[in-house]
Specification:
Length: about 300
C-alpha cells in the first residue's frame, strides 16, 4: 500500500520564528557576505572578522541549545543558515559546516568539561575548529583509517597523516579519528576507532601542504600531520573504540548540510538565470521569451522544488 494520503504529506511547514531567522540571515548575507564573496574566492581566504560578524548576528551558535550557550534554532535553523549563505558564498557555508562537524560530536558525546572548554569560543566566533577524519586511503571507507593512537601513561600518542582537511590552517581545535585497537575479524573493521579532541598547540601537530581545488577556494583543504602527538586521557571524545559510531552519527547531520548547500547554490543559479535572460536580448526580444529557454528554466525550478 502507498503509505501517504496525499502529496501534502511531503510539505514542510517552517515556523514563524525560523522565517524570522531566515530574514536575519539574509540581512547578514546582503550586508556582510555578498560584498566580500568575490574577494574570498580570489584570495582563497575567509577573513576571521567575518566569523565574528556572523556571531554578532547569532549565527555561529545556531543548532546549539540555549541551555549550553547556543542560539537554538535546531537542525532546521542550521539547514536554513547553510542554504542562505550558500547562495552568496558556498565557501563560507563550507566553513560553517566544518565548524558543526566539530560541534556536533562534542555537543552529543563530549564531557561537561569538553563542552564548557570548547563550545563558548566557537559560538562567539573567536575560535575555529576542524574535523580531521579523511586520509588518502580512507574517505568514504572510514574503517580504513591508518592513523594510530596507542596508550602511553595517562594519555595517548597519535601518529598519522590526515588528508583534505578543510580549513585546517584556521583551526584552533581538531577532531581526530584514529585507530586505538585492531578488529578481531575483517568484517568488523569499524571497531577500534576512537575520536580525540586535539588543540593546534599540541607538540607534533603540523599543517602540511595546501591541496589545490577548482571551486569554493575560500575553504581550502590541507594535509594534517600528527608526529608523536601526545594528548591526555580527557581528550578522548566519547568512549574508546566508539569513534566510528560517533562519526556516522555526526555525518548524518553533515549530509543534510551538504544538501542544503546544494539547494542554495541551485537557487542562486536560478536567480542569476532569470536576471540574465530577462535582460539579454536576441532577435529583438528577451531570451526568456523563447520557449526552449523557458523549458530549461522550468526544469531547473522543478529540480530545486523537488
Amino acid at each position: 500500500m502507498f503509505p501517504f494520503r496525499s502529496v501534502m504529506d511531503f510539505s514542510i511547514n517552517i515556523p514563524d520564528e525560523l522565517e524570522q531567522l531566515r530574514m536575519k540571515i539574509k540581512s547578514f548575507v546582503e550586508k556582510e557576505l555578498e560584498p566580500r564573496a568575490k574577494q574570498i574566492e580570489e584570495s582563497g581566504i575567509i577573513p576571521n572578522e567575518l566569523f565574528r560578524i556572523a556571531a554578532s548576528y547569532g549565527l555561529t551558535g545556531l543548532g546549539i541549545p540555549r541551555e549550553i550557550g547556543g542560539n537554538g534554532g535546531g537542525l532546521l535553523g542550521t539547514v536554513i543558515y547553510i542554504e542562505e549563505v550558500s547562495k552568496a558564498c558556498p565557501s563560507f557555508a563550507t566553513a560553517a559546516m566544518v565548524q558543526h562537524l566539530f560541534i556536533i560530536p562534542v555537543m552529543m558525546f563530549g564531557t561537561e568539561r569538553q563542552k564548557t572548554k570548547y563550545l563558548p569560543s566557537l559560538i562567539s566566533g573567536e575560535k575555529f575548529a576542524a574535523h580531521a577524519a579523511t586520509e588518502q586511503a580512507a574517505g568514504s571507507d572510514l574503517a580504513g583509517i591508518q592513523t594510530q593512537a596507542r596508550k602511553e601513561g595517562d594519555g595517548w600518542l597519535i601518529n598519522g597523516k590526515k588528508y583534505f582537511i578543510t580549513l585546517a590552517d584556521k583551526a584552533d581545535y581538531f577532531i581526530i579519528l584514529a585507530r586505538t585497537s585492531e578488529p578481531e575479524v575483517q568484517e568488523q573493521r569499524w571497531r577500534g576507532l576512537t575520536m580525540f579532541v586535539v588543540e593546534k598547540t599540541a607538540q607534533g601537530l603540523k599543517i602540511g601542504r595546501q591541496i589545490k581545488i577548482i571551486g569554493m577556494r575560500g575553504a581550502n583543504p590541507y594535509e594534517l600531520i600528527l608526529d608523536n602527538v601526545w594528548v591526555p586521557d580527557d581528550s578522548v571524545l566519547g568512549i574508546v573504540g566508539d569513534g566510528f559510531k560517533i562519526a556516522m552519527n555526526t555525518y548524518n547531520y553533515g549530509r543534510l548540510y551538504v544538501s542544503a548547500q546544494a539547494v542554495g547554490i541551485a537557487q542562486s543559479a536560478l536567480e542569476n538565470c532569470l536576471h540574465y535572460t530577462s535582460r539579454r536580448e536576441a532577435f529583438g526580444q528577451p531570451l526568456i521569451s523563447f520557449q526552449s529557454i523557458q523549458f530549461s528554466i522550468v526544469d531547473l525550478l522543478k529540480s530545486i522544488v523537488t
